[in-house]
Design goal:
The chain is an alpha+beta fold. Helix content is 62%, strand content 10%.
């Protein structure tokens, strides 16, 4: 049985910027985590839609094989002057003819071959598009799972802060330094943080299942993403991206489709010429027991049907190809510009949160906790500082993920490598 579509180096989605994505896992956890490159490889090898599409290529190869076959010759046997009267009674005056005839298609077979060959090339480009789409979808699910994993960990930090706060408030309440209501508020806050963590954990399970479905698994053996912190991609110039846009398989497809339309036009023009039929025969004359050779040629006269309609259709389709390519190029360039602007904005937000905002709120949280322990700050100041730090940590994760998500879409439009992997600073998020 014909196998699935195989990887073709297509895209550099492996440049997804995950710090530590290729690092080995600790002993006992390797089977529970999956890396990005492994996810892409599994998708290109086993994606159900790619496997199904592969059989369309097999079918098209069959059409090409059939188009290359010529018309079979025709064997004909004819008896004349049989069962008549007088001298033609019985078979005594019969004439029998054994003939072999061929159809001269006058270029039509080569025209069919050209059409099916161009169709095969078009399907091969469609296969590249399907590979690109499948890899991009896998990258999105991987990124979504990674985001849920990071946000679940951040929520876990929130749970730890809430638990520490409950212990600190209980100590103060037991010492008579805080009212009992503060302990109830701290415990309620802990319950809320547990709900937040649970929410991200179930989102993670769902996104991991969606990721595994990319290569046909409905019960993934892994429970986490093999990555630590998301790196922030490096900015790139817009000009080279525009130049790379022509590498998009969807645009290349128009070139292959044009070849198909040209082949269809040539075939339509060839079909305007009628087939010729030639035959060679041997005739036997029963009455004299003699034989003679007979030759026959049939040439239809195309006085009306010269395939004008199909030729007009083929020419219109050929002209439409150029117009459709120009429209698609404009659409892709517009989408690329919008993604590029979002990408630059995302980089700015990610760097600002990571480098400017996060260090300050972390410092404020440490100082507020110290002041709370010393009795200078109350419960409200402490929880406000915790909430602010957690909110910024979450926003920093989301900003880094969004920057990578925009990079995935840019890579999908250009179909080429864009940036080398970035490494997140340790402890930056």
């Amino acid at each position: 049985m014909w196998g699935p579509l195989t990887p073709k180096t297509p895209i550099a989605l492996a440049c997804l910027l995950f710090a530590g994505a290729g690092q080995a896992e600790a002993p006992g956890t390797a089977s529970e985590a999956i890396g990005f490159e492994e996810a892409i490889a599994r998708t290109l090898d086993r994606n159900p839609r790619l496997v199904a599409f592969g059989y369309q290529l097999v079918a098209q190869e069959g059409r090409l094989q059939q188009a290359a076959l010529g018309r079979n010759p025709e064997l004909n046997f004819m008896v004349e002057n049989v069962a008549g009267t007088g001298a033609f009674d019985g078979v005594n005056g019969s004439e029998s003819t054994l003939s072999l005839a061929w159809i001269l298609e006058r270029g039509k077979r080569q025209g069919r071959i050209d059409v099916q060959q161009a169709g095969l090339s078009l399907l091969e480009l469609d296969a590249d598009i399907h590979r690109l789409d499948a890899a991009a979808a896998t990258a999105r699910f991987y990124l979504e799972s990674f985001a849920n994993q990071l946000l679940s960990e951040t929520a876990g930090e929130g749970v730890q802060l809430a638990e520490d706060t409950v212990l600190a408030v209980r100590t103060r309440v037991e010492a008579g330094r805080s009212p009992a209501a503060e302990l109830a508020r701290a415990e309620a806050r802990l319950a809320e943080q547990l709900l937040v963590r649970e929410d991200y954990e179930h989102r993670l399970r769902t996104s991991l299942r969606q990721l595994a479905a990319q290569w046909g698994d409905t019960d993934p053996a892994f429970t986490r993403i093999a990555a630590s912190q998301p790196g922030i991609p490096e900015p790139m110039a817009y000009g080279p991206l525009i130049a790379r846009l022509d590498e998009n398989p969807a645009l290349k497809r128009f070139v292959s489709e044009r070849r198909l339309r040209e082949a269809e036009l040539r075939l339509a023009e060839t079909r305007a010429k009628p087939n010729w039929r030639i035959a060679a025969a041997v005739r036997h004359f029963e009455i004299s027991d003699d034989q003679a050779f007979v030759a026959d040629i049939t040439i239809p006269l195309p006085t009306r049907n010269k395939n004008q309609g199909q030729i007009a259709v083929a020419r219109a389709s050929l002209e439409a190809n150029a117009a459709e390519r120009r429209a698609a190029r404009i659409d892709l360039e517009t989408r690329l510009y919008a993604l590029y602007q979002e990408f630059l904005h995302g980089l700015h937000v990610a760097h600002s949160l990571r480098d400017d905002v996060l260090p300050k709120v972390e410092t404020a949280l440490r100082e507020t906790r110290s002041a709370y322990d010393a009795g200078r700050y109350g419960f409200v100041e402490l929880t406000s500082a915790q909430d602010e730090a957690l909110a910024v940590r979450t926003a920093a994760v989301i900003a880094a993920i969004e920057a990578n998500r925009n990079l995935i879409e840019i890579e999908r439009l250009t179909g080429t490598a864009i940036a080398a992997p970035a490494v997140a600073r340790r402890g930056a998020l």
